[in-house]
Amino acid sequence: MSGELVPQSPEKRMSDADRERVAQSLQSALGEGRLTLEEFEQRLSGVLAARTFGEVEAFVADLPGSLVTAPAPERVELRTTAATLKRGGRWVVARLLVVVAKAGSVKLDFTDALIAHRVVEIELDVYAGSTTLVLPRGASVNIDDVELVAGSSSVRNVPTSPFPEQGLHFVVRGKQRAGRLLVRHQRRFGRWRW
């Protein structure tokens, strides 16, 4: 969803711009079919009346890209050898993800993930395998610092930018050898998502 907020401590007061970003997230959730019109109206009135980040968290906690007030880890290393490594659903994303894969595929789906940092760095060390990064709508990516050796990269319908703009920004660097790097949004057909 677009309009993710930079997580703050629960007692910190919100600005009008902060409330507007949360309202945009609720609007996106309504448009995606995650909220009914009645739920949207109830949550919106609560968000507009909220004074602190802690008060507004209850209105967005069950939505992708929601606020995270608990501290997220700074660095996490994910490793696989001759196997598939997948992360999806509601998982906590560290500021720096180190991905090491040898003869295996990696799929990191950030669509419903709990992301506490506005900029997420992903360091790749992938050999003889594919890497797929599924980003939430409104996120941007920079893959300029990925070294490709006998491989390819593709960014499909995701804004690319060397610098963070609005919303989440993913910076991917490292090596992708003898495989493919794909960055895309979640695909949907009816109620199926992949």
Descriptive terms for the model:
19% helix; 194 residues; five-stranded parallel β-sheet; single chain; alpha/beta
Map the helices and strands.
Blueprint: H1 16-31, H2 37-49, H3 53-60, E1 75-81, E2 85-87, E3 92-93, E4 96-102, E5 106-109, E6 114-115, E7 119-127, E8 131-135, E9 140-149, E10 152-155, E11 169-177, E12 180-185, E13 188-189, E14 192-193
Parallel strand pairs: 1-4, 2-5, 3-6, 4-7, 5-8, 7-11, 8-12, 9-11, 10-12
Antiparallel strand pairs: 13-14
Helix pairs in contact: 1-2, 2-3
Q: Helical region count?
A: 3
C-alpha geometry: elongated
How many β-strands, per DSSP?
A: 14
Number of structural domains: 2
Please give a structural write-up.
This protein has 194 residues and is an alpha/beta fold. The protein folds into two domains: 16-60; 75-189, no CATH class. Helices cover 19% and strands 37% of the residues. The protein has helices at 16-31, 37-49, 53-60, and strands at residues 75-81, 85-87, 92-93, 96-102, 106-109, 114-115, 119-127, 131-135, 140-149, 152-155, 169-177, 180-185, 188-189, 192-193. It has a five-stranded parallel sheet, with no helix packed on it. The radius of gyration is 17 Å and the shape is elongated. Mean pLDDT is 86; it is low at 1-6.
Short recap of the structure:
With 194 residues, this protein is of the alpha/beta class.
